[in-house]
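For the sake of clarity, the format in which proteins appear in this thesis is described at this point. Each number in the token line that follows is a code from a learned vocabulary of backbone shapes. One such record is shown here in full, so that the layout can be seen directly:
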Amino acid sequence: MVNRIVTVNVATQVAPTPSTLQQTGALISQGGTTTAVNTLSFLTQLSDLTALLVTPKAITSMVWAGNVVTVTTTVAHGLTNAGVFTLAIAGVTPAAYNGTFSCTVTGTTTFTYPLTPNPGAVTVQGTWQPQSAIEVRQMATTFFAQGSSVGVYVLEFGIGTSAAGVTALTSFITANPNTIYSYLTPRSWGSETTYPTFLANYTSPTAKTYFFTTVTSANYTNFSGIDPKCLFLLVEAPAVPPLDNAASTEFTTASAFHVPLAYAPSSAQQVTPTAYSFLYGVTPWPPANNNSTLANYSSLDINYVATGAEGGLSTSVLYYGKLNDGNDFTYWYSVDWVQINCDTAISNAIINGSNNPQAPLYYNQAGINVLQSVVVATMKSAIGNGLALGTLTQTTLPAAQFTANLEQGMYEGQVVVNAEPFLAYSNENPGDYAIGNYAGLSVAYTPARGFLTIVFNITVSNFVAI
């Protein structure tokens, strides 16, 4: 064999897979589907839900006595004896038997629920099903009314109380961190006393988990004084049909839930403000006689749906797209995007640099320069995607000087990426080189956001200038 004149070595660089965490959402079901507990089922369109829903089951008899209705089901209901479950009764004559009730299981084919006054003898037997089956259908219907650019999961926890659902969600997130970005909770969670305590676990700036929750005039005070950044509250308009109305297809909060999940940040598709987003298939609050009520909700960072009438539009829009800490959703969405993408980009550079003999990445000044350039590229994308405000600046300052400059407002209107020089950092942190740790890379920036309110001043005079 003839000896080769040239030997070619090839080193590969593998680009990072873009994170899809911020496009993952889950509709929480408590017994609404036939799937197993803790199952995630992905929906790409509304029709995907049909095969998953629990269908109405036949009732053999209903007897009212002493303000209590005893229901006998045609087949075994499968509910835990002595348990209390929220069930929907429909199709019964007299119609007063129909609705959503807290039902107590008394046997394998029987349960009871309170009802006053006596509606009279039943002439047409109806059906029963978990209330969640109606609610999940409403959630999905309203979600996909906003468009089909993004799908959504249904997360099944099994039929049970709101408190049981909160406990189940705690366990699910613990076992599956960074799996779901936003959750749409059942309406009943707005009154659940254990829910605010649960929310306190996700107030950290690094939490990257959000909960969209419906409240009413009767229960919004359940969240008074906690103001967590992970909570998005919305109060439905008075005209929204109650859950007892099984024919209703509206779950208003699902429309707002869809907005940030549909973001796909790029220079060609920048992130738009959450405030005043168009919403479809939902009922807006009527302006007449509701100004003080809506002003109160707004002051408490509770969102609602109204029309764009002030802008000459009849389309429903979201007021105001704020999380419960007072920041608009795009603020924390930007913070999360920067965390996720800088983490991925830096990790990718280090891994590739550990596998490239032609250009290995060492812990030295050249290596730090490479990492800074990676963050600079990521923050350029943040600016171009409508997530960061200002122009890009690179600095190479010791930590104390960089912090002092920030406190003096030297970087106002800028996105600043600082990388503390190798020698300065090593002198300040003599033990870090030995363990391969570098904590001198940082970003300071202001998330981009939209307008919420405008004050427009007009001065009128009847004096004519001569």
About this structure: The first strand starts at residue 25 and ends at 29.
